Amino acid sequence: MPFPMSRRSFLGSTGGLMLLGGVAARPLEAAEEAGWPPMAPIRIYVVYLGTGGAWPKPDFDAPREIQEKFAPYLAQVQQRLGDVEFVGGDLIRNHAKLAEGLLPKIDQSRADAILVVHLAFGNAVPFSVFAGSGRPVAIYSQPFSGHDWMYVPRLQKQGLRLILAPSRDLAEIDRIVALLRVPVRMKQSKIILVGNPGCAAGTSAAKDFDLVRTKLGPEVVQVIPADFVKIHESIDARDAEKEAREYWISQAKEIVEPSQEEIVKSCRTYLAMKKIMLEHGAQAITVKCLGGIPIAAIGYPCLGFSRLLDDGLVGACEADIDSTLTMLMFLYAFGLPGFITDPLIDTAKNAVIHAHCVAPTKMRGPDTERLPFSVRSHRDDNLGASLEVFMNQDLGQKVTWAKVANLDTILVTTGTIVEVCDFDDRGCRTQVVTEVDDARALFANWGGGVLPDDMMTLLHRVLFYGDHLNNVRDIAHLMGLKVLVEGKEMGEPSIPQET
């Protein structure tokens, strides 16, 4: 057994770190500190493929390469990531029958995913065998291991869920192993939807909860507003007052419109959301907040969404299932919160303005410093409590915004923060301007041809710090999704357009 690390060792204190390649170590550590039960480590079966031949060289010593190079490195990866457990470690010749013969052993190990370390010349059929097991597969292939890398894009086009890192850089192993967590964690996830039956928003496929479970993994649990109000009423007012005082009022740059009573009411809503998430073992919640819950009685959920995002969980506006799924995927890969936005095009500045009345205050992740913020009213009606988060200190920050569509596509765009605008206090409270490659192309091709006419579904995107485009491509292969770079690529709607 080449991975002799104890549970305590690989659950070490690396949480909150962004590793090389933009992936996160222990993305759920902050949630555990906030009271969520830990999720079991992901079991990854390691296969060393290829024993020698013409490439890398006739006298190649595969067992020695494993013992001296790869096994020690994988032990380090296990410790760095903190939420994976490597099992297996078999060395086989690069042959389909040997790969097939290993499948019962992989099944018996209860592995969630497979890591193939490609060592020597052969063919790509074993890649297909492992991907055909129903588990996500990541392959690391260092230079001169053979020519098998050529076939991976073809296998991906056939729908096999595998990714390849052809590189001399061992840190690529950290990256692809971290991405293997995404499809596994999605299957382990629950989403709470607060609202009446039929309130779910988004593409037609995303509103079919059985289809969500089948295609992307999460279980959606619906809670009607009347039941949520009862939970809200059960929250001790002293706990809500403490939350309001310690996390919002004492930390804000300014309290502009809301009264202390209104802020406490919203904090009670946060504690109610937290309570119901913990009861169901959920990692995400989305609420039909505009017209779906009694705002006068329980307030807006904006502060609660921000708090959950700061704690390494998902709180999403407007019962938007597509955006909730997007935020979960990015959380598991990168440990980052998402800022759901109502984008606007500004062609004069070649920019997209992102705006909403709620945002995380820890855009770089749960273990980072909070951005400055003011507590404001919700801009649509000047009621309740929401947030104006100031990203001025992050001018020049690369960002990615994305959205899962129809459970089969992910729209993605990148940009750079260049301004925090002030349009005479118009529009949603939190605003940030991002320069893009071609704002006119985004305007002309908004939605990539795959989104319906429904305004919210066509509008919402989720913004994350960092340029994640290449990693999103790999996540898409592991999740069975197509990728469309919005403004540059167009797809065909897989589900009839809604009106």
Report on the architecture of this protein:
The longest helix is centred in the middle third of the chain and has 21 residues, at 260-280. α11 packs across α13 (302-310). The chain has 17 helices and 20 strands. With 499 residues, the protein is α/β, with parallel strands linked by helices. The model is unreliable at 1-16 (pLDDT under 50). The strands form 4 sheets. Strands 11, 12, 13, 16, 17, 18, 19 and 20 form an 8-stranded mixed β-sheet that branches.
Strand content: 15-25%
Structural category: alpha/beta
Cα-to-Cα separation, first versus last residue: 58 Å
Instruction: Kindly state the number of beta strands.
Output: 20
Overall spatial form: globular
Count the helices. How many? 17
Rounded radius of gyration (Å): 23 Å
Low-confidence stretches: 1-16
Q: What value does the average pLDDT take?
A: 93
- Helix fraction bin: 25-40%
Largest sheet: number of strands, sense, barrel closure: 8 strands, mixed
Task: Name its key features.
about 500 residues; 8-stranded mixed sheet; single chain; alpha/beta
Task: Record the SSE blueprint.
Blueprint: H1 7-10, H2 29-33, E1 42-49, H3 62-81, E2 84-92, H4 96-108, E3 113-118, H5 125-131, E4 137-141, H6 152-157, E5 162-166, H7 171-187, E6 190-194, H8 209-215, E7 219-223, H9 225-234, H10 237-249, E8 254-255, H11 260-280, E9 284-287, H12 295-298, H13 302-310, E10 314-316, H14 321-334, E11 339-341, E12 344-346, E13 351-356, E14 373-378, E15 383-389, E16 398-405, E17 409-419, E18 430-435, H15 439-444, H16 455-459, E19 461-465, H17 469-479, E20 482-485
Parallel strand pairs: 1-2, 1-3, 3-4, 4-5, 6-7, 6-9, 8-14, 9-10, 17-20
Antiparallel strand pairs: 11-19, 12-13, 13-18, 14-15, 16-17, 16-19, 17-18
Helix pairs in contact: 3-7, 4-5, 7-14, 7-17, 9-11, 10-11, 11-13
